[in-house]
Amino acid sequence: MLLRGHSRVSLLLNAITFKNNSVINCVPEVHTKLGKIRGYYKKSAYGRTFSAFEGIPYAKPPIGDLRFEAPQPVSSWSTTLNATTLYVCKQVKSLYSILERYHYDQEDCLYLNVYVASEQPSENDNLDVIVNIHGGSFTYGDGYMSSPNYILDRDVVFVNFNYRLGILGFLSTEDEILPGNNGLKDQQLALKWVQAHIKQFGGNPKSVTLMGNSAGGASVHFHYFSPGSEGLFHRGISLSGNVLMPWAIQEGALEKARKVATLLNCTYQKTNDMVDCLKVVPVDEIILKTAAFHVATNYSFVPFAPVVEVKSENSFITRHPYKLLEEGEINHVPWLTCITSDEGVFFTALLSSMLEEIDRNWNELSQFVLDYAYVVHDGDKRDVAQKIKSFYFQSGDLQDKFHKYGKLIGDRYFNVGFEIASLMQAKLSKSPVYAGLYSFSASKCFAKVIGWNLKGVLHGDDFLLIHGSPFETYPHNTKPDQLMTNSLLDILTSFASDGNPRTKQVIWEPVTTDTFRYLLIRDVDNMNMTMEDKFSPREFWENLDIMENDKVMLTRDEF
């Protein structure tokens, strides 16, 4: 599938490039064990020509009998693969649906893109490799959300890719027939592809850094806990996401799977029969008839996400990551993690039309908005709801209430889990952990791109300066924005090179076990290491009767 002329035009425009005032009448090609791959040339945000290979299959199409199954490695090909096409996985409608490529989303979508800071990639280049896992609540998005336009001004190989989303990627019946985590298993197979083939693109398979934002950041962190990911990467960067944030682990998976089956007229008494039935339902019908899962007052912001699996041949993770972290059962490689100063404001804005309804029905709806419906005993839910309301809300006008919701959602969804995970991993990992708080107010931020009049440094604003806006070809940044982009790329590429993040302005010191030490990023010339005993209201949340982290429940049978 071509992007309706986009790929053909790009290929023709980039087929002739100029180097040392001479014309190169060719396009980049690489020879892999799978077959020959032909790409094309693109220009970075600041004018550098680089090689692009878009739409390389890394798995067999997950369609028909392979729907809801673990991914299978792609077969080789005999002809030259023209890698000039961007793919998007089938998904529910979202903010990204206005993008042209989302009009052609499809179930056959397990493709990756490779971008090389060279016009003639060579096995001898040995460049550091950065692999981005896209975010989007495990529900939306595509690999190209993380554009190479800025990163390819640096000497790296950059990889992004698609993985199955929502029901197609994270449906689970909590048994060996449909254990779940197919989206994570897609990611793992993509990383295996990188190990096997990235050298032919000029990348160093012994220097692979994972990075991701939001659900992508949590995905990166999940690979620290999967034995199958050991050796596939050497450093990781989690922006606004990790495994201890409450939305990262799906609860009530079996109940949701049965609801899906009912909506699609499939029986669920026997898992085999249910899965066989779901495999023949048209994919558009699956997306359409399960839209109710994506209403925040019915389910959480992230209804389908990774699960703790039963043990099987292809299992990704079989114990809760908190327990694994507690015992030091992790992949011991450096980890850099960062959140923004106003994470919750973005999600509060998404809920803005429902805030009055949530207020009126607080005891009932807060469990969904704050994602504790499946981890609090029914008899304790009212008490938990009232304690949260008392802690966060006093009298105030509607505008003040909006900001209080922003603080509440930010703490629940991001801040507390960020602090706990950073401190625990720093204590139990054999490799350093670096934590950061991003508080730079850019002229180009997600609120302005979307058209919202919001103040603060929102979820994804750091990502925007690293990758650019998915809604614009090249963001026209101000000088301060450009300087911050360069500083963030300094941090990213230095960490990808040797595991030590740094800029010209500051050396990022690792988290210590006795106090929470993090880098506060206010501006290019205002970055400093900060130490706090209480970064978040961690004690308040840990004292609530919520069965997660140290009080984690492995099954719902105890309810």
How does this structure look, described?
- This is Carboxylic ester hydrolase.
- Keywords: Disulfide bond, Glycoprotein, Hydrolase, Serine esterase.
- It holds the Pfam family COesterase.
- It is an enzyme of class 3 (hydrolase).
- Strand 1 and strand 2 (about 20-25) form a beta hairpin.
- The radius of gyration is 23 Å and the shape is globular.
- The protein has helices at about 5-15, 165-170, 180-195, 215-220, 255-265, 270-280, 285-290, 320-325, 345-350, 355-360, 360-370, 380-390, 400-430, 445-450, 460-465, 480-500, 540-545; strands at about 15-20, 20-25, 30, 35-40, 40-45, 50-55, 80, 110-115, 125-135, 155-160, 205-215, 235-240, 335-340, 435-440, 515-525, 525-530.
- An 11-stranded mixed sheet has the order 5-6-8-10-9-11-12-13-14-15-16, with helices on both faces. It has a 3-stranded mixed sheet with strand order 3-4-7, with no helix packed on it. The protein has a two-stranded antiparallel ribbon with strand order 1-2.
- By secondary structure, it is of the alpha/beta class.
Helix content range of the residues, please?
Answer: 25-40%
How many E strands?
16
Strand content: 15-25%
The class by helix and strand makeup works out as alpha/beta
Overall pLDDT level: 90
Q: Describe the largest sheet.
A: 11 strands, mixed
Low-confidence stretches: 1-25, 554-559
Q: How big is the Rg?
A: 23 Å
Question: How many helix segments?
Answer: 17
Distance between the termini: 48 Å
